[in-house]
Every structure is written in structure tokens, then in C-alpha cells.
Design goal:
By secondary structure, the protein is an alpha+beta fold. The protein has helices at 4-18, 35-39, 45-61, 110-126, 130-143, and strands at residues 29-34, 65-70, 84-88, 94-99, 104-107. Strands 3-4-5 form a three-stranded antiparallel β-sheet, with helices on one face. A two-stranded parallel ribbon has the order 1-2. α3 (45-61) packs antiparallel against α5. The radius of gyration is 16 Å and the shape is globular.
Length: 145
Amino acid sequence: MLPPAQVEEQATLRIERQAVLFRDEPPQAVFVIDEQVLRRPVGGPEVMREQLLHLARLSDGYPHIHIHVVPLSAGAYVGMDGPLAVATSPQGEVTCYLDGQLAGTLVESPTDVGAVLRRWEAVRGQALPIGQSRQLIGDVAEQWT
């Protein structure tokens, strides 16, 4: 468990990083989350409901933000190995990031980037379309009342 001051600092940094999504000419952002994340109680029912409604509003109100959910019915899939991020620069350069519990790994070699991109596509292939994902997020949010 982290000390309260460190939790607050991390939360503040995450909120500041989100600002990139709302600037002029924001990047397209595609997020894929596991349905279990919607259902795992963190912070209590009211916090969960508000967080999920926030995701649904982002998905609905911003055409550059795509949120997909991998349903529980997908069973085991490659995304369960841990978080990953893929970023493409305006020049088309692809960089990947693998997140671990103790440290993250920046992936830049073409061979490794290709491997991460195949994993990313496999994860996206398991996810619901945007509209169905938004509906599921909203349905689960209402269950948190």
C-alpha cells in the first residue's frame, strides 16, 4: 500500500497527463480495457459508478477517443500478460511501451515493435466495438448504484 501523499501525487500526475487528450488538435487515442476492470471494486460503489460514467462520456463525446472493452466471455487472451501502449509519431515512427509492476520497458527495435503490434492487434480483435463497449460500460456503471 502506498502512503497517502504518494497516492495523491500519482493521481495528480495522471490527471495532468490526460490534458493532452483535450488540447487543440489532440491525438487519436484508442484504449482497450478488460471487463473485469469495470467490475473490480476499487474505491467503493459511488467512485466506481462515476469513473465508469466518465469513461462512457469520453467515449461518446470525443470522436478522437475510442474505448473498447474485452468482454469476460473472451476467456484467456494475450492482453492478460500486462499493459502495453503503442504510440505513432506524426512522422509514422512507432514506439511501444510495456508496463510492469517494478518498471516499464520502452520498445524501439523493429523486431520487438512488430511483436508488440501483433499482440496489440490480437487484443483489439478480442474487444467489443465502440458502441457495444460504451453500452457495457454504462450498464456496469448502473450496477454500481
